[in-house]
Specification:
The protein has about 325 residues and is an alpha+beta fold. The protein has 10 helices and 18 strands.
């Protein structure tokens, strides 16, 4: 179609967690220790060669599915078998046996998580938003909940985040297209978790609006078509989204308190994306959120408080399967 896009080789590096780590490490980017194992290996033997705490990540899954922290060899072996079960049940396992049996094992990185949304044009990163994840994500599973922008990190830290993402995108060859990066900030250390050649997932892009009137998707399309987009600026104020967690496995029977949640000042939208009567499964096995809660206010603190207050008014009734 002759649209502007990232080179396919760069996309391949970014879509594979292990390849990404290898490319960035070879380029001299500070990275956690890591190694790749096959689920056909003996987990006890792999654990004996692994440092702790560590994180196990199946290469064929996304959205934190199957990502598990282990602090000791026995936890490592339990996580290993749990991931094997997830992969055996996943569509990815049926489509690609080779990729689905590989697992990335890397050092656990402490700190607060942050995300960056941007578009790379001719090798230059344009940052559209830096988003805080105020909930601690220290494991054993890594379910995302709240995203808030603008970030509350100091300006210098945000500049360092942008600089690191820009350098990593360049090392991977991501030169023309959207990127979504996930990082951890621990005191003065900033570490890249991953960088994806795509925009933010789910309904989350709804919180990003641009003046004089445009969505994140519109900016991405304008870039791919060679149309100008630099004059579109993010709307003033703060915005956020909560990805509503699934509290237990079973059959979703009822979600009450939705009207009460929408009455919280600052809340501008609420979507339940799983129909009643459907089976729900929490992380690490699950691959869906219950829904999305949206807020907009003057400050990030007001947005976060609104999301938490609204979520407290929602009651999810799940019947054991």
């Amino acid at each position: 179609l002759e649209l502007t896009h990232h080179p396919s080789e760069a996309v391949r590096y970014a879509r594979d967690k292990a390849l990404m780590r290898k490319q960035l490490s070879a380029a001299g980017v500070s990275s956690p220790w890591f190694h790749v194992a096959s689920l056909h290996d003996d987990p006890v033997g792999v654990a004996s060669r692994t440092g702790f705490p560590c994180v196990l990540k199946p290469l064929s899954l996304s959205a934190s599915r199957g990502v598990i922290r282990a602090d000791a060899p026995e936890e490592f072996v339990r996580a290993w078998h749990r991931i094997r079960g997830i992969l055996e049940e996943s569509d990815a396992a049926r489509r690609s046996q080779d990729v689905a049996t590989e697992i990335l094992i890397e050092a656990y990185l402490p700190g607060r998580e942050v995300a960056l949304e941007g578009i790379v044009s001719a090798g230059e990163l344009r940052t559209l938003a830096v988003l805080d994840k105020p909930d601690l994500m220290d494991g054993p599973f890594f379910e995302e909940t709240i995203l808030v922008t603008p970030s509350r990190f100091p300006e210098q830290v945000q500049e360092d985040i942008v600089s690191l993402v820009s350098r990593c995108a360049a090392h991977l060859g991501l030169s023309d297209g959207p990127i979504h990066a996930e990082l951890r900030v621990d005191a003065d250390r900033i570490s890249l978790l991953e960088i994806a050649p795509r925009s933010i997932g789910g309904r989350c892009s709804r919180i990003l609006r641009f003046e004089p009137g445009g969505s994140l998707e519109e900016l991405i399309l304008r870039h791919s078509l060679g149309m100008p987009h630099d004059d579109f600026l993010r709307e003033p104020g703060a915005a956020g989204v909560m990805m509503l967690p699934i509290p237990a496995a079973g059959v979703l029977r009822e979600v009450v308190g939705l009207e009460a949640a929408l009455e919280v000042p600052g809340i501008e939208g609420l979507e339940i994306t799983i129909p009643l009567g459907h089976t729900v499964v929490p992380l690490p096995e699950g691959n869906r959120y219950l829904g999305f809660l949206f807020a907009r206010a003057e400050t990030p603190d007001h947005v976060e408080n609104a999301l938490r207050a609204a979520h407290a008014r929602i009651e999810v009734r799940i019947e054991e399967a």
